[in-house]
Amino acid sequence: MPCPTHRGAKTVTQSADRPVDLIETALFNNRLWATEIQKNNPEFFEKLSQIHAPSLLWIGCSDARVPANQLIGMQPGEVFVHRNIANQIQAADMNCLSVIEFAITVLRVQHILVVGHSDCGGVKAAIRGDAPELVSHWVRPIQRLFIKHMATLKELPFHEQVNALVRLNVIEQTKQLAQIASIRSAWQKGQQLTIHGWIYTLQSGLLEEVTHINNIAAADTILLKAE
Ligand SMILES: [Zn+2]
Fold first, then answer.
1. Residue among 61, 111, 167, 196 flagged as catalytic
2. Which of 21, 53, 146, 181 has most Cβ atoms within 10 angstroms of its Cβ?
3. Alpha carbon distance 175, 202 (integer Å)
4. pLDDT at res. 6
5. Hey, how many other C-beta atoms are within 10 angstroms of the C-beta on 149?
6. C-alpha 207 – ligand 1 centre gap (Å)
7. pLDDT at residue number 105
8. What is the pLDDT of residues 86-137, one digit of tens each?
9. What is the pLDDT of residue 19?
10. Which residues does the chain have with pLDDT short of 50?
11. Going by DSSP bridges, is the β-strand pair 111-117/194-201 parallel, antiparallel, or unpaired?
């Protein structure tokens, strides 16, 4: 059934032509996408349904402008994904910790990517202290990081403060990961596993690696330096 808002483009998304019924359009786009893949690769979905073996775990921000697979040209099945506001790893977050444990012990991913991004709303909220209650609580660790680096950050204009704190936050999250039992245990057993800290720049579409940790000795050196 042709979608009433479909105007001949491959998919219909938000634009000047914003569809009247977004949900109907989303389902229509899905059928179009599945049909297109079936046409080019008839076995794609059948194969995908039989195995789940991604090599990457992506821990990114929930921001709609930073979709994991799309940014690194990966297909469905290639990236295990966890996203939350401002890409944080918190010791009491069973959701994130379970994802990490599953990724390492069952999927045996070889790389964990912690991906922050420029102009992050969660980081802005941490600086301004103006988020709603729960979000405010969630970004508190970033606020503490801001206070810790206040002396240098306060000299910068707001926009640069945000991006400098985005970078500090990514580095901090890699340190959080380096203390997680399932990761340390994997390293101790000789499992190949690298934690990468990446930043995505909204204005250029480019990713940059700011740090990485690939063994327990390197992790301990970094953690001791941070104390
Ligand atoms: Zn963000």
1. 61
2. 146
3. 24
4. 44
5. 14
6. 14
7. 97
8. 999 999 999 999 999 999 999 999 999 999 999 999 999 999 999 999 999 9
9. 53
10. 1-9
11. parallel
Is 65 labeled as catalytic in the residue annotation?
Answer: yes
Cα dist from 226 to 72, 112, 174, 175, 195, whole Å = 31, 21, 12, 9, 17
| Residue 17 designated active-site | no
The answer to whether 120 is a known catalytic residue is: yes
> Which of 3.90.105.10, 3.30.565.10, 3.30.930.10, 3.40.1050.10 is the CATH number of 52-226?
3.40.1050.10
* Residue whose entry in the numeric block shows the structure tokens 């912690």: 114
| pTM (predicted TM-score) | 0.90
**Which one-letter amino acid corresponds to residue 210?**
V
Q: Report the pLDDT value the prediction gives residue 226, as an integer from 0 to 100.
A: 74
Percent of residues in the chain assigned helix, strand, coil, to nearest 5: 50, 15, 35
Cα of 180 vs centre of ligand 1, distance in Å, is 23
Nearest CA to 193 among 53, 61, 55, 54? 55
C-alpha distance from residue 138 to each of 84, 149, 218 (Å): 10, 19, 29
CA gap 217, 124 in Å, rounded: 34
For the chain, domain boundaries? 1-51, 52-226
Question: What is the residue whose two structure tokens read 């990236």?
Answer: 79
Q: Does residue 45 come out as left (phi exceeding 0), alpha (psi in the -120 to 50 range) or beta?
A: alpha
194's tokens: 């690298």
